[in-house]
Amino acid sequence: MTSTVLTLSKVTRAYGTLKALDGLDLAVPDNAYVSLLGPSGSGKTTLLRVIAGFETPDAGTVTFKGRRVETVPPHRRDIGFVFQNFALFPHLSVARNVAFGLENREVNPVTDPKVVEAKVRDMIALVGLKGLEDRGVTQISGGQRQRVALARTLVTEPSLVLLDEPLGALDANLRGRMRGELRAIRERCGVTFLHVTGSETEALAMGDTVLVLDQGRIVQADRADALYNRPNSVAVARFLNCYNLFDGSVSDAGFKGPLGTFPLGAHRAPAGGRPGYAIRYDRIDVRPEGAGVAADEVAIPGTFIADEYSGAAVNSFFSLEDGRVFEVESHLSQHEAPDCTPHGRYALVWKRDDALVFA
Predict the structure, then answer these.
(1) Whose C-alpha in 110, 151, 154, 159 is 20 to 30 A from the C-alpha of 190?
(2) Whole-angstrom Cα distance, residue 188 to residue 184?
(3) How many Cβ atoms sit within 10 Å of the Cβ of residue 135?
(4) Lowest model confidence (mean pLDDT) among 156-160, 244-248, 323-327
(5) In which element (H, E) is residue 186 found?
């Protein structure tokens, strides 16, 4: 059974009348990579600051490794923090940046130069920077600076590492490479990473568990594949940026929305949230207008607007009768993208059991 290293219960943090955290509950497992996904303004940064001890919650409890820590100062929490901008010392070398926390921490600073040197050497090797010890941090790449920042945190052996959008300052190629490196480093260290991001792709790729934050609360906590295939609300489906969404109402007759009534399939989310209907971009077939549909299919007409090629897939955009844009994703490893004529009319078809209905 997986143990829990961090628990937040009913945590609230307000700025005037704005509640950045609103009775938030959170459980972070030990020895795991956890992604925290949320849009701007959802409370991600405030949550990290409360966990790290930079801010004190107005209400609720924060329990870390079995003890309450709401009033414990940051340097006594055994929690590491990797900032988005790395926060390295530009006048120090790679090795001296990594050593800084060991030598200057208030609790149990390491004063033996030989011990510092050995720990720094091992950590630099762990993050793949061997041979760059004497380089200035202004003389290395963005990905290498990211690893220096991580090494500086890990060398102090924290029980939890908070990463605040750690890949946001890197270019696309570096972000892709650093995903694998961060996961490998975490596994070698056996420490929990809590990785905050606004990118749904990054959250799904990185986390053993993905937490979705909305309006100051965790609204879903699940495995990446479960979250992607079964978001539990309209809000979560929207964050994932891979579902076409319709507003409407649910009855025994089906889902009644702006384009008519869709028959209900097998997958209905528990009642309690905003009603809605979702169909994932890659679950849709594009057929000639007027093409027949099977009894288990749903079809709506659309006017082709444009294609967007991304290498492994093509995303096709259609205008619906109510003016909204409807998206279809074709994975080229599975089938060819539809060959559509600009302003042409098509039938957009999906299996009704592939849709998600939020009651």
Answers:
(1) 110
(2) 6
(3) 15
(4) 156-160
(5) helix 172-189
The tokens for 340 are 């559509």
**Is residue 350 within 8 Å of 285, Cβ to Cβ?**
yes
Look up tokens 């975490």; give the residue.
186
Q: What is the pLDDT of residues 248-306, one digit of tens each?
A: 999 888 999 999 999 988 777 665 678 999 999 999 999 999 888 999 999 999 999 99
Give pLDDT tens digits for 297-341: 999 999 999 999 988 899 999 999 999 999 999 998 887 888 999
CA-nearest of 338, 248, 351, 356 to 302 is 338
Does 1 have pLDDT greater than 60? no
CATH number of 243-358: 2.40.50.140
4-229: which CATH architecture? 3-Layer(aba) Sandwich (3.40)
Distance CA 213, CA 21 (A): 10
The two beta strands, 356-358 and 268-269, are: parallel
First to last CA, the chain: 33
**Distance between CA atoms of residues 278 and 237, nearest Å:** 8
Q: What is the DSSP string of 45-80?
A: HHHHHHHHTSS--SEEEEEETTEE-TTS-GGGS-EE
> CB neighbours (10 Å) of residue 86?
18
Which secondary structure element, helix H or strand E, spans residue 212, and what is its range? strand 209-214
